[in-house]
Write a structure and sequence with these properties.
Elements lengths: L5 H40 L3 H29 L1 H20 L4 H29 L2 H32 L4 H4 L1 H15 L2 E4 L10 H23 L23 H25 L14 H31 L4 H29 L1 H24 L4 H26 L8 H30 L6 H4 L4 H33 L14 E4 L5
Antiparallel strand pairs: 1-2
Helix pairs in contact: 1-2, 1-4, 1-5, 1-7, 1-10, 2-3, 2-4, 2-8, 2-14, 3-4, 3-7, 4-5, 4-14, 5-11, 5-13, 8-9, 8-14, 10-11, 10-13, 10-14, 10-16, 11-12, 11-13, 12-13, 12-16, 14-16
C-alpha cells in the first residue's frame, strides 16, 4: 500500500468493518432471537422440552463443530470468499426454517443455519484481527464486541416483536433481506485477506471428524438425559433406527458422554502428533501456550454457558409462568440490551484507563449480580418489571466484558493465524452456548415432576421454582468465570503486549485488493 493511498485504504477498512459487523449481528441475533419465539414454536409444532432444547442447541452444536475447520479454510482460501459462502448457506437455512412444518424440518434447517454461521463468524473476526493494528485495532474490536453483545441482548426483544406482529416464522424470514444486503456490501467494501500457505503437509481429515463427533455426543447426552434417563433407560428409545434395549444396564446418555470425552481426548492427541510430524492441523495447539489465549478461552466458555442458560430459561418463565405476551417478554429482556449498549459505549475508555482485563472482571461481577437478582425474583415469581430491573446490571456487565474479553484473548495471536485463533475463540463461545441451553434444560427437567409435554411447561406452580434452580446454576458458573477472568487479569499484567511469536516461518499474512469471489 502506497503512502498516498493510505487514507483511502483506511476509510475502506472502516467501511468494511461495518459490513462485517452487520454479518456478525445477523448470526448472533439468530442465536438469541429464537428464545422468545420458543413458546409459540412449542405450541405450533407440538414440541416437548427436549425438542425445545434442540431448537436452541442444534444451531450452536453444528456451529461449534465446524468453526475450527472454517477458520482454517478462511486462512487458506480467503476470508471474504468464505464469508460470502457462509452468508448464502445461512440465508438458505433461514428460508427452510421459516417454512418448517414439523420438528424434524425445523431442526434440519437449524443445522444448516449452523453451517452458514460457522463460516461467517471466523471470517468476520479474523478479518478484523488481520486488518487493524495499534489504536485502530482497539477501536475496531470495541465496535465488533459492542455489536456482538448488543445483538445478543437485542435478540429477545426483536423476537418478541416479530412473533407478536406476525408469527414465529418471521424471526427466520428477517434474515433473508439482511443476508442479501450483507452479501452485496461484502463484495463492494471488504478486502480479501488470507495466509499464504498453511505450514505442514496434507489435509487434516481426522481432526474435524473427531472434534465434531465429540462435541455432538456430549451435548446429545446433556439434552437427552431428561428423556432417556441419566443412568438407567426410561423406555426403549429409537436412536437413528435401532431401538436402545429397555433392559440395558445403562441408558444411551452416559455412553454418549463417555464416548464424547474419549473422542475429544483423541482429537487433542491426533492434533499434537500431526503438529510434531509437520502435518497440517485444524487446531494449532501452540496457541494455548499463550497465557492470554488459554485463560481468555476458559473464561469465554464459562460466560457463554451462564449467558445462554439464562436466555433459555427466562423467555419460557415470562411467557408460561407470568402469562406475558411475546412482545412484553421481549421488552422485559430488552433491559439487557439497554445495559449492554450503555456500557458498551464507555467500555473502550475504561479499558484505556484501567486495562481491558480489569474491565472484564468488573463486567462479569455485574453479570453475577444481575443473574443473582433474576434468580431471586424468579423464585418468588415476581412481576415482569422486577425481572427487567434485575437484568439491567447483567446487561451492563455484558457490554463491559464482551469486547474486551475477545480483544485480550486474541491479543497475542499472530495475524497469519487470525483465522485459526478467531475460530477457536468462536468455537469456545458456541460450545458454551450449546452447553448453556443443555444444562438449563436438564436442570428444568430435573426440577419438574412432569416435563414431556408442552402443557407441563406452563405449570404455574412447578415452573417458577424449576426456573430459579436453572438460574442458580447459571449464577454459579458466572461466578467461576469471574475468578478465571481475575486470573486472566493477573496473567495479562505480568506478560507484556509484545507476545511470544509462534508463527511458523512458512506463514505470512497477505492482504489482497478486492477481487471477484
Amino acid at each position: 500500500m502506497t503512502a498516498e493511498r493510505a487514507p483511502e485504504a483506511q476509510r475502506r477498512a472502516w467501511a468494511g468493518l461495518w459490513v462485517l459487523a452487520a454479518a456478525l449481528a445477523m448470526i448472533v441475533l439468530d442465536g438469541t432471537i429464537v428464545g422468545v419465539a420458543l413458546p409459540a414454536i412449542i405450541t405450533d409444532l407440538h414440541l416437548d422440552l427436549t425438542d425445545a432444547q434442540w431448537v436452541n442447541s442444534l444451531y450452536s452444536v453444528v456451529f461449534a463443530a465446524l468453526l475450527l475447520t472454517a477458520g482454517r479454510l478462511g486462512d487458506r482460501w480467503g476470508r471474504r470468499r468464505l464469508l460470502l459462502a457462509g452468508v448464502t448457506v445461512f440465508v438458505l437455512g433461514s428460508m427452510l426454517a421459516a417454512s418448517a412444518g414439523d420438528a424434524a424440518a425445523l431442526l434440519s434447517a437449524r443445522a444448516l443455519q449452523g453451517v452458514g454461521g460457522a463460516m461467517v463468524l471466523p471470517s468476520t473476526l479474523s478479518t478484523v484481527n488481520a486488518t487493524f493494528r495499534g489504536r485502530d485495532r482497539a477501536a475496531a474490536f470495541g465496535i465488533w464486541g459492542a455489536v456482538m453483545s448488543g445483538a445478543a441482548a437485542l435478540g429477545p426483544l426483536l423476537g418478541g416483536f416479530l412473533t407478536q406482529v406476525s408469527n414465529w416464522p418471521l424471526v427466520f424470514w428477517i434474515n433473508v433481506p439482511i443476508g442479501l444486503a450483507v452479501a452485496v456490501a461484502t463484495m463492494l467494501l471488504v478486502d480479501e485477506t488470507r495466509g499464504t500457505k498453511a505450514a505442514g503437509i496434507g489435509v487434516d481429515v481426522p481432526g474435524p471428524l473427531l472434534s465434531a463427533a465429540g462435541l455432538a455426543l456430549i451435548v446429545f447426552g446433556l439434552i437427552e438425559s431428561s428423556s432417556l434417563g441419566w443412568w438407567t433407560p426410561t423406555g426403549s428409545p429409537a436412536l437413528f433406527g435401532p431401538a436402545w434395549p429397555a433392559a440395558a444396564p445403562v441408558s444411551p446418555v452416559p455412553v454418549a458422554l463417555a464416548v464424547g470425552v474419549v473422542l475429544l481426548a483423541a482429537f487433542l492427541v491426533v492434533e499434537s502428533r500431526r503438529q510434531r510430524s509437520g502435518r497440517t492441523t485444524v487446531l494449532d495447539l501452540r496457541l494455548f501456550t499463550l497465557p492470554t489465549f488459554s485463560f481468555g478461552n476458559t473464561t469465554a466458555l464459562l460466560v457463554a454457558v451462564g449467558e445462554f442458560a439464562l436466555l433459555f430459561v427466562l423467555p419460557l418463565f415470562l411467557v408460561t409462568s407470568l402469562g406475558l405476551s411475546m412482545l412484553s417478554a421481549g421488552l422485559v429482556l430488552a433491559s439487557m440490551a439497554t445495559g449492554a449498549f450503555l456500557s458498551g459505549a464507555v467500555a473502550r475508555h475504561l479499558a484505556a484507563r484501567f486495562g481491558p482485563t480489569r474491565v472484564v472482571v468488573l463486567g462479569l461481577a455485574l453479570e453475577v449480580v444481575g443473574a443473582t437478582a433474576a434468580a431471586l425474583v424468579t423464585t418468588a415469581s415476581g412481576p415482569g418489571w422486577a425481572v427487567a430491573a434485575a437484568l439491567l446490571p447483567y446487561g451492563l456487565g455484558l457490554g463491559l466484558a464482551s469486547a474486551q474479553l475477545t480483544s485480550t484473548t486474541l491479543r497475542d495471536v499472530p495475524p497469519s493465524q487470525s483465522g485459526t485463533g478467531s475460530a477457536t475463540q468462536s468455537t469456545v463461545r458456541q460450545l458454551g452456548a450449546a452447553l448453556g441451553s443443555a444444562v438449563a434444560g436438564t436442570t428444568l427437567a430435573a426440577a419438574l415432576t412432569t416435563h414431556q409435554t408442552p402443557t407441563a411447561l406452563a405449570d404455574p406452580t412447578a415452573f417458577p421454582a424449576a426456573s430459579a434452580s436453572a438460574l442458580w446454576v447459571a449464577v454459579a458458573i458466572l461466578a467461576i468465570a469471574t475468578l478465571t477472568a481475575w486470573a486472566l487479569d493477573h496473567t495479562s499484567r505480568r506478560q507484556p503486549e509484545t507476545a511470544p511469536q509462534i508463527t511458523p516461518p512458512a506463514i505470512q499474512e497477505k492482504s489482497c485488493s478486492p477481487q471477484p469471489s
